[in-house]
Amino acid sequence: xxxxxxxxxxxxxxxxxxxxxxxxxxxxxxxxxxxxxxxxxxxxxxxxxxxxxxxxxxxxxxxxxxxxxxxxxxxxxxxxxxxxxxxxxxxxxxxxxxxxxxxxxxxxxxxxxxxxxxxxxxxxxxxxxxxxxxxxxxxxxxxxxxxxxxxxxxxxxxxxxxxxxxxxxxxxxxxxxxxxxxxxxxxxxxxxxxxxxxxxxxxxxxxxxxxxxxxxxxxxxxxxxxxxxxxxxxxxxxxxxxxxxxxxxxxxxxxxxxxxxxxxxxxxxxxxxxxxxxxxxxxxxxxxxxxxxxxxxxxxxxxxxxxxxxxxxxxxxxxxxxxxxxxxxxxxxxxxx
Length: 337
Description:
It is built from 11 helices and 12 strands. It is of the alpha+beta class. It has helices spanning 11-20, 69-87, 96-112, 139-152, 167-175, 177-180, 211-218, 251-254, 266-291, 303-320, 327-331, and strands at residues 2-4, 32-37, 50-52, 55-64, 117-126, 131-134, 157-159, 185-194, 200-204, 222-230, 234-239, 244-249. Helix 2 (69-87) crosses helix 3 (96-112) and helix 5 (167-175) packs parallel to helix 10. Strand 3 (50-52) and strand 4 form a beta hairpin. This is Recombination-associated protein RdgC. Keywords: Cytoplasm, DNA recombination. Belongs to the RdgC family. Its main location: cytoplasm.
């Protein structure tokens, strides 16, 4: 994501606030406990963030307990019946306030017996290029992170790196890789296709230049995710929203890591890996911005600009494919689910 902030983002300015918002272990009766945690864990428990070059690293911990609604409802009903009997009342005579107290008591008791789920959201901020990278794909978890970043800096505002879908590019790459795909990219045998009716087909460890795939593309299927390798250095799956997953450095990239000859701590080794990946990711997205014409230089939310980009995208993919006249008969034989 891209971000804007009127304040300076740095370890010096953020560390005091991160410590104030530190994660505390969830209590027996709590539903959730959220806060920032030490970025190096037990290796440096009091270091809430870490700055290398122009990158600031941090981590958010989320602990939460989930109550089963049906089980909770039954427990409340049983407790309400017991309370009415003890007080010599009919259940319909119980006041709204008493109902609330019963509900709170039952929830508290149930929470004490539930083990929490625990999530870690790791992120780094490229303060030079105003970029935020997060290691989760869940939108709700990203929103929680941003919510807590706003507690540090109320003027820290994020938006997606791309303001429009990349599916037209991914589709044209898969349809005619030799002609349409940038030379520094190679396909890596995995793709996910989708149609307007939300049906989806996942191809894994297959020949992505097969006739079956070409037929699907000729019948308005769109590529939503494509496995790629860039310059033989970085493997990843690029999604149509511009996010990547299954990120993995190749042996070539690993061989470029500059490690200290005589490291004095594990942190030095970790730093070497972090620098390698942060630099590679920043360069990757800078390169993306150069090949994908989907970022709107005008004010966000302009419907006219969005429409014009969609028209241009549709025109591009239409011009790249030539529908085979006899492919319609083949479509009925395909298993697309």
